């Protein structure tokens, strides 16, 4: 009986000594919970639901054509700055209209989607080489050497643009970069990748666009020594259509105002080196160029 009394007394003593600590811990836990609740409310970041709506309207390719690392960043940016509307090249006018509707904006009809054009048509056999390049297989590396190939304006053919493209829309075929327009999204990463600035984003107002596939600015005689299919600035195209002009020994086409016509087709047919040709998803195979005859002994 005495033992039972001692046990009960010990439990009672333990309880009287422990309950203040238990109450203190409970009070502290409640205080911390209340503090966290207040902090979560004060520091909570409210996300505009329109950001999620815009993000869903985008193609979610994260190509960077808009100038932002990904579609989520662009969605936030365009919500705060409507001047960025229409910067999504892969989405085109359809996506721009969808975002404008989310933002309760009315926008005029957007212009044609821009697609890349390679301003060169010289394959390996068309080029003149002073030496055999044996360096790193990179256009940037080869471009640093003065004698990688005679033409310092033409496609080097090592595929920096191919590596940059996330959509397998560029391929090197016989030393020349070729765009696969069925896969191209217009992200423009290839433009930045080319060290010779051969690739230009052009407004495709038509399924296939006429283009001057050359960037050589040397005089015609020098160009002929460098490349069998380079522009020699003969001016035959300018005599057929006002859309053509000669600048820096190179024919140029007004892509913004280009409309297929009998005059532009005649200019293409009369081009002696065949640098005027169609580019696009259903472009015909370029006609063979008239290569210069070998010099007589």
Identify the notable features of this structure and list them briefly.
single chain, about 300 residues, alpha+beta, Alpha-Beta Plaits, two-stranded antiparallel ribbon, two-stranded antiparallel sheet, elongated
Structure, explained:
It is a single chain. The protein is of the alpha+beta class and 297 residues long. The chain folds into two domains: 49-102, 3-methyladenine DNA Glycosylase II, Chain A, domain 3, CATH 1.10.15; 114-279, Alpha-Beta Plaits (2-Layer Sandwich), CATH 3.30.70.20. The chain is 36% helix and 11% strand. It is built from ten helices and eight strands. It has a two-stranded antiparallel ribbon with strand order 1-4. A two-stranded antiparallel sheet has the order 2-3. The chain starts with a helix and ends in an 18-residue tail after the last strand.
